[in-house]
Amino acid sequence: MNYTSDSDMLQRRKWERRDYQSAMTLMLADGRRLQGQTLDASMGGVFLGLLDGTAGITSGMAAELLISPDESDVGIPCTVVRVKAEGVGLNFAADQAAFGVFVTHDMLLDLLSSISNDFATTLDLNTTLSVSVAHMKNYLQAEAASLFLIDQDTNEIVCEACSGPVDIIGMRLKMGEGIVGRAIQSADPHIVHDVSDDIGFSQRVDEVTGFKTQSVLCAPLRVKNKTFGALEVINKRGSGLFTSYDRMVLTALASATGMAIHSAHQAADLVKKDAAEQASKAKSEFISSMSHELRTPLNAILGFAQLMQFDETASFRDRDRASIASIISGGEQLQSLINEVLDLAKIESGKFTIDIIETSPLDILENCLDMSYGVAKKAGIRILDETQGHNLPAIWVDPKRFGQVLLNLLSNAIKYNCDQGTVTVTAKLTSDDMLRFSVSDTGPGIPKDKQDLIFTPFSRLDMEGGAKEGTGIGLTITKNLIELMHGRIGFESSPGTGTTFWVDVPITGKP
């Protein structure tokens, strides 16, 4: 075990908390105004150091937090939830917490999307767990987080991943020891606001590392009614108290993480027996389970946001309505990602079925263009259909899936085009009796050093972190669909000039 020294750990915690310091004034319900400075902060509350001490302040007192000395400023309603010698912990009132949900919705969507992507594509479960634990710690505004699994050989609880000021990977606890052990044995989540009042808290980790645990939230890892570990986050920033919302989030993350670990272990066992076929099946089952785990809360988020968006009686400000629109946009993007990940998993596992029939290509293209014109107009892009007036032969395709292919190519050409750009659609017969559809844009093109990655899953080339929304899966699915229909796909791109994607499909009379 590689523990950080006491002095290094204390210095790091002191350094981290400087980011949260600012002068504020606490106005108590009895009229007293106390000057202070935030020692720690989160979306739900702050811990405020008071210059004149905490005499006469008790837990439960109502107060307002003023962010400037100007008496005309409106205070943020809050409640005193903790009193220490150096200051007080304050929880914001419900309306501030609701505003915090608006502010952090992007963080939540990013967290779910990131964890879904990482677990779905990982070849190194341990690294992925470490990254995911760090994401969970940051989102839940905790000082530290860790993941424990039961060692079946020794019947001990072992830390397999952690994030925070000290490294406790490899730390072993006896079965039932501490809050982690209790959560595993009871198979229920636990919130402990002050570990000094909890007789079951184990001080062994703190004694070994020098870390100071104050509050704990812990959720068991369970699959098929079997508990095999736990997720734990420690020391809530700000007021120092974890909430029922935090418990709900960690429980959902524990469910998804437990499924990931279970599926990974299943895949490892199956690889030994039948590597390719059985591992692909396990991955498909995992993706389907993850899709359900994400869709249920996501549908609730989208539904609630849409109700607020269309509530004409609500007195929302412009920035509130902008936040609601952003929630819906981000949710729909994540929903699209989930659907595409599920399609990709089905294709790779051999469970994806297509129905190839004789089809009119112009009918499919016309429908796709009708759906694309509105998006193009909104983006300031012009679509030129050069197939009009041509007598094209019937083709052998799955009409629904071929339409999905053309829509994806049109969508990419619109999205990655330049301002006032053009998208051109053409069709022609090839020398080997295939029908080639081409979709060209006038965008910046694809860098030559990135072109080999164009059909790689989750690769967005130079678009990562940019303003263009995308999943990095669409072209991978497009390639797989075309190949399932016995066709071909390719592209040509010149940086600074534009890109052309083309697909070849069999015409009637060819097998």
TL;DR of this structure?
The protein has 511 residues and is of the alpha+beta class.
Q: Could you describe the 3D structure shown?
A:
The radius of gyration is 28 Å and the shape is globular. The protein is built from 10 helices and 19 strands. Mean pLDDT is 78; it is low at 10-20, 97-106 and 463-467. Strand 18 and strand 19 (498-506) form a beta hairpin. It starts with 5 loop residues before the first helix and ends in a 5-residue tail after the last strand. 42% of the residues lie in helices and 25% in strands. Strands 1-2-3-6-5-4 form a 6-stranded antiparallel β-barrel. The protein has a 6-stranded antiparallel β-sheet with strand order 9-8-7-12-11-10, sandwiched between helices. Strands 14-16-17-19-18 form a 5-stranded mixed β-sheet, covered by helices on one side. The longest helix is centred in the middle third of the chain and has 66 residues, at 244-309. Helix 2 crosses helix 6. It folds into 4 domains: 6-92, Thrombin, subunit H; 94-124 and 260-350; 141-241, GAF domain (Beta-Lactamase, 2-Layer Sandwich), CATH 3.30.450.40; 357-506, Histidine kinase-like ATPase, C-terminal domain (Heat Shock Protein 90). It is of the alpha+beta class.
Largest sheet, spatial ordering of strands? 1-2-3-6-5-4
CATH third-level topology of the largest domain: Heat Shock Protein 90
The main β sheet shows up as: 6 strands, antiparallel, barrel
CATH class placement of the largest domain: Alpha Beta
Outline, from the CA principal axes?
globular
Provide the succession of SSEs.
Answer: HEEEEEEHHEEEHEHEEHHEHEEHEEHEE
Distance between the termini: 62 Å
